[in-house]
Amino acid sequence: MSSPENKKLVIACGGTGGHLFPGIAVAEAWTKAGGEVLLLISEKQIDTLASEGYDHLRFEKMPSIAMPPLLSPKMVTFLIRFVKAMRECRRLFKMFGAEAVLGMGGFTSTAPLVAGKQLGLPTFIHESNSIPGRANRLNAKFSHTVLVGFEVCAAHFGGVMTEVVGTPIRPSITNRPSREEAASFFGLDPEKPTAMVMGGSQGARRINELVAGGLVKYEEAGIQMLHISGPADYETVKPEYDRGFSGGVLKGFLNEVQYALGIADLAICRSGASSLTELSFYEIPSVLIPYPYSAEDHQLHNAEIFSKPGAAELWHQDDLSEDTFAGKVVSLIKNKDRLKQMQEEMAKLAVADASDRVCEVISSTLA
To answer: In CATH, what number is assigned to the domain containing residue 241?
Structure first.
């Protein structure tokens, strides 16, 4: 096995938690093995929040550049900003002494990958989802190897070398707390059934509305709610919790997600690949509500990978209402036999060593 020791890797991973968190996970594994990492993130608030607590890693902010349609009037502005971003990347890469570039998805990765290609560096992308987005379909053209989280995704990159590696998980999450430690972190009761609500790093407005509309029913059923709303919806949801609901905790954002995973008997969430990877590692039965407007409907396809073997239940957003949602959640979390079956199937989908697999592919290329 080749080693990242003394090798310098650039990881472009900004824009969403689904790109950033796996990028941080690879950075942690690479530096642990003796290598050096430069992480490129976007200027978005979510990147700033998510990178807090990682002072031992080096971050540089790059403009977030979304590619408009080909004939859009915005294309000229995009090209100007893109060329500037490439120049900045080349400057940073030379100063850092970069030896390889890894893009974790999104157009934030495109300029670094092109710049790396121009400098003759090996370039790689990682695609977590079952169906690649527009950015990674483009990014693959500048990549030596495409690393995928789900085997079904490889078929979408015809003609490019692919490796199935899973989706990396941060070490802070793999360091699993006990249920008692997790409950203590939030001031919750470890004996009570607990549902974790998580819309992804940026939240999910409709899920927040559905959950907030049934708080009284959850409290009456003796169910604790651990609700991570996302920063944008926190102030909207907070009044519902302030009306005397004592059966749960509301957080706008949470970096210490391992504690939420450590107390959850059931997860209610979107179906981004990064979230699904964490849920499977903790073997948490889940209700998956795919974002209906995700690119290529990839969240639906991600969810089906988990719902078909029975690891999760797939609920379509348009079929749900505040009147019935809480009752369905209560019925499921009280069904211990069903939860046990889901938990067993979740465990089969877990990939614990994805970060090491990514590092192995890259370091082997550099050897």
So the answer is: 3.40.50.2000
